[in-house]
Amino acid sequence: MLLEFHVKMDDRTIVRRQLLYDGDCGFCQRWCEWAMRHGAEVSIEFKPCQLAQELRRLAGISDRECTKTALLIESGENDRIVTVRRGASAINGVLASLPGKRNVLWRLLSYLYRVPGIKQMEEIGYRIIARIRGHLSGGSCRMPAELKKEE
User: Fold this and answer.
1) What's the number of domains the chain is made of?
2) What is the domain-level CATH number for residue 80?
3) Segment 25-63, tens digit of pLDDT
4) Domain span at residue 27?
5) H-helix or E-strand containing 27?
6) Would residue 142 count as lying in a domain?
7) DSSP string computed for 34-70
8) Which residues contact 9 (CB under 8 A, 6 or more apart)?
C-alpha cells in the first residue's frame, strides 16, 4: 500500500515518487527488494521500466536510458513531472526515504551525496556497478512475474 507522500521542494510539491529499474536485471530486482524490505515502499513505488512506457514518455526517458540506469521520478499534482533523478542520485533518493530507527545509517549515508567530491565518486561507482551488474546477478537475470505476463 502506497501512502500519499508530500514533500516541498523549491515551491513544488511532490506527491508521487516512482523508481524505475531494469526489470530484466536480477541485481536491480534484488536491490529494489532490499529497499522494500527496509520500508521504502511506504513512499516510493518500484516499477520495472519496461512496464512504465507512459511515465517514461512524460519524463522524456528513452528505452536505452531506461535499461542502463535507475530513475527516480518525482511527480506533482496532476502527475506533472517535477524531477527525474538518475543513477546514484536516484539510489540516494531511495535511501533518504527509508523510514525508522533501523535505517538511520542509510539516511545519513544518503546525505553524503551532497558533499562535493563524494557525489562524483558515487556516480563513478554507480557507473562501474551498472556495467558489471550482469555478473553480480549470478550470471542470470530472472524476470518478475509482471513482465512474464506481458509477453
Assistant:
1) 1
2) 3.40.30
3) 999 999 999 999 999 999 999 999 999 999 999 999 998
4) 7-137
5) helix 26-37
6) no
7) HHHHTTGGGT-EEEEGGG-HHHHHHHT--HHHHHHS-
8) 74, 82, 83
